Amino acid sequence: MRPPVTLVLVLHGHIPDVLGHGTWPHGANWLYEAVAETYLPFLIAVERLLEAGIPLKATVGMTPVLSEQLADPRFAPGFDAYLAQRARAAGEDGERLSTSGDAPAVSVAAFWSAFYGGLRADFARRSGDLTASFRRLAERGALEMIASAATHGFLPLLPNDRAIDRQLDAGLAAHRRHFGRDARGIWLPECAYRPGGSWTSPADGHVENRCGLEDFLAARGLKYFFVETHLVTGGRLVPAYGGLVDLPESGATPYRIHAVRAAHGEHVGVFARDPLSSQQVWSGKIGYPGDGRYLEFHKKRAPSGHRYWRVTDSSLDLGDKLPYDRAAVAGALASHADHFVKILESAPALPDGSAPVVVAMFDFELFGHWWFEGVDFLAAVFEKLAGRNSVVPRTASEALSASPTPEILRLPSGTWGRGGDFQVWWNDHTISYWREVDAAERALETFEERREAIPPPLFAALERQALLLQSSDWPFLIDNEVSRDYAEARIRGHVEDFWRLARMADSGFVDDAAFAVIADRDRLFEPELAAR
């Protein structure tokens, strides 16, 4: 008899540091939108399922930079004001629309008013502490919280091992502080992996031998990480959001947990994304979010910014979209949850008879933010699974413990970005960025040699600016061009602040006013950097 399929649902939550760096179109609203449309609805849905006796298992990453912002004293009042404004704007929409006799749109405006008002009440019930809610769900065994690098730095291209150490040490310590326990697993930013061996600097092209990332993970007791499919199966990356995907006929299977061997012999588990289940959620062409009944993401009503239209047909111009009908959504969710469960059940059997492991990996914000009904879809999937024995949801650690001895692989370099390699983050447009990262690291190396002569808060501020500069979001946004101006401004700001602080460290004179401005704006990892 075939053993049940193991489902490992992995949600990677990440927002770069935006508090203190403006509000809109980039800034704090980026964070507030993700919390309002993804994180808070997810918490509400999970708690509802558990109260109904429906078991749920998910592996959730909240990057350290995201967790730090959720715990920042500026977050709760800013988020409450954001929710109040969104509810108020919906009410104003309703008043305007009622005069035009557009009853369907008035109904949607009422929905938005109730949606944001309900979130505001729930947030108050949690006393503004979302991290505590995630922590409690982890303590109940429903969630496993995994860590990441401190500011989501692109680890394979950082200029030296010390920079990787800083990203991991600060990130893991912050994770422990927020979630009350050490992480067993980690999300490598951008799923970017590099084995040991020859390494080429993106800053100046020099070549040297470097340790593989598994050596850093094993040294810190981490048991597993995640990679894109092609790193295990071989071949090229066919992104799930682009359309139909097929598994190659040769290479290792993504339906088994593998491992890599670190330099001192430790094994670190490797989970590879299942492309078949992923495309159903990622792809707007053939996946569920492209269904005409779901909310259209891109079309918004001025001045409120609320959405009143449905996808209708993903090939249509925005002007041709039809009104959103909440009553039609339930049928779409039911059929798509059924379809997703059937995909899970059809995971190919393994030759040795062991249970196939389906690793469904997604950006957390895809659910609720990009695909508004996505959180409800996840809830519907777990409701469907509750009465079946064919699929068993497990956290990543549970799946690792239940799996046979993993096959040891030697993985190539790669990411889950375009092309499956480093091209999104390392290209002609980002070389100047990597030169700035390299220069800051070289300066930090000289400051470390005389660290005792530098006031600890000043040294911590230097490290903080270096960490913020290393965020993989900045070269990513440069590459996608949509938010290039914002990314370049953030890079410029962190470079200027780093060298302003460096001049203070060089001269021995701390400009208290300038230092206070920087320290008040960027507050991340205070306990971790103070302890280094």
Can you tag this structure with a few keywords?
single chain, 532 residues, alpha/beta, 7-stranded beta/alpha barrel, immunoglobulin/albumin-binding domain-like, 2 domains, six-stranded parallel beta sheet, four-stranded mixed beta sheet, 18 helices, 12 strands, globular
What does this structure look like?
By secondary structure, the chain is α/β, with parallel strands linked by helices. It has 2 domains: 5-292 and 326-420, Alpha-Beta Barrel (7-stranded beta/alpha barrel), CATH 3.20.110; 431-531, immunoglobulin/albumin-binding domain-like. Helices cover 46% and strands 11% of the residues. The protein is built from 18 helices and 12 strands. Strands 1, 2, 3, 4, 10 and 11 form a 6-stranded parallel beta sheet that branches. A 4-stranded mixed beta sheet has the order 7-9-8-12, with helices on both faces. A two-stranded antiparallel sheet has the order 5-6. The longest helix has 26 residues, at 75-100.
Topology, element by element:
Elements: E1 5-13, H1 28-51, E2 58-62, H2 64-71, H3 75-100, H4 103-125, H5 130-139, E3 143-148, H6 161-179, E4 186-187, E5 197-200, E6 207-210, H7 213-219, E7 224-227, H8 229-233, E8 258-261, E9 267-272, H9 275-282, H10 329-345, E10 357-363, H11 374-385, E11 391-393, H12 396-402, E12 407-408, H13 431-449, H14 456-469, H15 473-480, H16 484-507, H17 512-521, H18 526-531
Parallel strand pairs: 1-2, 1-10, 1-11, 2-3, 3-4, 7-9, 8-12
Antiparallel strand pairs: 5-6, 8-9
Helix pairs in contact: 1-3, 1-4, 1-5, 1-11, 2-6, 3-4, 10-11, 13-14, 13-16, 14-16, 15-16
